[in-house]
Write a structure and sequence with these properties.
2 domains, 8 strands, 171 residues, alpha/beta, five-stranded mixed sheet, Immunoglobulin-like, binds 2-acetamido-2-deoxy-beta-D-glucopyranose, single chain, three-stranded mixed sheet, 5 helices
Length: 171
């Protein structure tokens, strides 16, 4: 009985520690063109140059209603501003949020004649980190991503063990 209480205390402490650990995986939302939005006269090659995009990030295009659209196209269509066979075609409302859910290159253009002036965006989406091997515990991948967390877990488990030992001794 006493042993199972001690084990329960240890388990609770370990769980509490994991629940309190900060979220390791975070996605970024990029406003395409930053404060300039998705509009003619912005050089999106320059905008994208210093940015790294990872799987899970979002691109949000803000445009003038009825003035612009967002077409996801292939590389050839991007290079030549061809709008006749887009992969995705979006023009409703005033914004379009697009999730970058795969690695690879993504190309976007506006079909309203502004593409030739530079209203086109090409980005490369990278994998954030190697996928954890199948079946590995969440604790392992968290610990791998954040070495400090691993240390914290070890410390907490140590405390839990000490508490358990103390409980056992006090019986
Ligand atoms: C976008 O899709 C709509 C409806 O599916 C279509 O009417 C329109 O011509 C398309 N625009 C382009 C540029 O592909
Ligand atoms: C990937 O993103 C697109 C566009 O946001 C979405 O329609 C699609 O369902 C997503 N696919 C997965 C596997 O999440
Ligand atoms: C955008 O900037 C890049 C890099 O400075 C340049 O090579 C490119 O010609 C520019 N595009 C337009 C449409 O001005």
């Amino acid at each position: 009985m006493a042993v199972s209480v001690a084990l329960l205390v240890a388990a609770l402490l370990a769980c509490t520690c994991l629940l309190q650990s900060p979220a390791v995986v975070s996605a970024d939302r990029y406003t395409v063109g930053s404060e300039k939005g998705w509009n003619p006269g912005v050089n999106y090659t320059v905008w994208a140059k210093d940015k790294h995009f990872y799987v899970g990030d979002w691109l949000v295009f803000y445009y003038q209603s009825g003035q612009a659209d967002v077409l996801q196209v292939n590389e050839a269509a991007y290079n030549q501003c061809l709008a006749d066979s887009p992969i995705t075609n979006y023009s409703k409302g005033r914004s379009f949020a697009f999730e970058l859910n795969k690695t690879g290159r993504y190309y976007f253009i506006c079909s309203r004649g502004y593409c030739y002036g530079g209203m086109k965006l090409a980005i490369k989406v990278e994998k954030l980190r190697p996928a954890p091997p199948a079946g590995s515990a969440a604790v392992t991948s968290l610990a791998a991503a954040v070495p400090d967390l691993a240390a914290a877990v070890v410390r907490t488990l140590g405390v839990a063990a000490a508490v358990a030992a103390a409980l056992l001794r006090s019986i």
